[in-house]
Write a sequence for this structure.
């Protein structure tokens, strides 16, 4: 879907990447922008951010800051696999659909994708696609990658994650979590990050910030020291070692201090809840997938999609069935919701 690149929209529902930067994050960036510090992360800002992560996940956690979500997923998966491995994920996973095969290119691994109805994997699905273990002619299953929340906006419970991790570890595999929207998941579950990641058995986590009010930057978080040993080399080789690291680190410090992550995610989730509630009451429109976080998927009459999208950009998730996706952000307001609904109603009545 191509939008008008020359237009600044008052509000977009296409992606939470389309929002601006939270003022506290911008203030933190300005605060870090004086004096000289050692490059590549040997600086007080990065040390502080890592200490804050340790407060959330444990003192022995290993944290590395990278530039983007694709960079986080790719460098993490690259570092914990061998080229003869396969990476198992849901068919809708970002690493399978939206990363131009970067994880496959850098790791050399086969991406084994599993069709799902709700974006979630389970042990039975994974068992069905694990074949050729120990056979030199087959790719060897090495990693299960799950997304929390999923690309369809659904959530894994901590128990569901634990079941997948237990199965993986029993079968000598690792588990990676794509947490690009992990703050939205934590808010919806009303759980600390650690409870549904490290405590549930996740080995390595891509921790997102850009979709929740940061300017740029994500984190790769290892919960096992033995698999993190050489990550800095993979980070450098995959172009994710940033020289002016403080400008990512200081954002994470501001993001995780005083629960800014929770405030931002809470607003995005609540606005999505309001949108889902209001739009489901419009005759001819129905919810496509359960709304758990800040994504709303609906069946929208095909004849009005192109008319609404001109004023309120959004993505078409399933063109054949008329399913569209609306993403709410940290800065989405009730007025934004009212304006979108007003536009939809006016088009429905024509």
């Amino acid at each position: 879907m191509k939008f008008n690149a020359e237009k600044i929209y008052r509000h977009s529902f296409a992606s939470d990447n389309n929002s601006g930067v939270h003022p506290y994050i911008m203030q933190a960036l300005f605060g870090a922008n004086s004096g000289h510090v050692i490059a590549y992360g040997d600086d007080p800002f990065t040390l502080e951010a890592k200490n804050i992560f340790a407060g959330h996940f444990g003192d022995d956690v290993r944290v590395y800051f990278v530039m983007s979500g694709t960079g986080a997923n790719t460098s993490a998966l690259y570092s914990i696999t061998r080229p003869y491995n396969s990476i198992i994920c849901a068919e809708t996973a970002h690493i399978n659909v939206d990363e131009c095969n970067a994880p496959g290119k850098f790791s050399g691994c086969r991406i084994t994708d599993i069709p799902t109805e709700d974006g979630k994997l389970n042990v039975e699905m994974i068992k069905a696609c694990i074949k050729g273990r120990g056979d030199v002619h087959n790719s060897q299953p090495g990693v299960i990658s799950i997304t929390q929340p999923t690309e369809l906006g659904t959530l894994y419970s901590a128990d569901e994650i634990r079941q997948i991790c237990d199965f993986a570890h029993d079968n000598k595999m690792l588990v990676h979590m794509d947490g690009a929207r992990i703050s939205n998941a934590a808010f919806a579950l009303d759980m600390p990050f650690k409870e549904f990641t490290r405590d549930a058995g996740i080995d390595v986590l891509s921790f997102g910030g850009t979709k929740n009010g940061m300017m740029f930057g994500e984190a790769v978080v290892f919960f096992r020291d033995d698999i993190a040993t050489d990550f800095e080399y993979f980070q450098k080789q995959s172009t994710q070692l940033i020289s002016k690291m403080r400008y990512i680190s200081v954002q994470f410090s501001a993001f995780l201090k005083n629960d800014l992550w929770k405030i931002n995610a809470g607003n995005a989730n609540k606005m999505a809840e309001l949108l889902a509630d209001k739009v489901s009451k419009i005759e001819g429109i129905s919810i496509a997938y359960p709304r758990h976080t800040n994504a709303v998927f609906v069946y929208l009459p095909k004849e009005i999609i192109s008319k609404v999208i001109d004023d309120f950009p959004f993505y078409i998730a399933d063109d054949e069935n008329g399913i569209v996706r609306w993403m709410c952000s940290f800065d989405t307001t009730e007025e934004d919701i009212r304006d979108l609904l007003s536009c939809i109603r006016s088009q429905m009545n024509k």
In short: Residues 260-279 form the longest helix (20 residues).
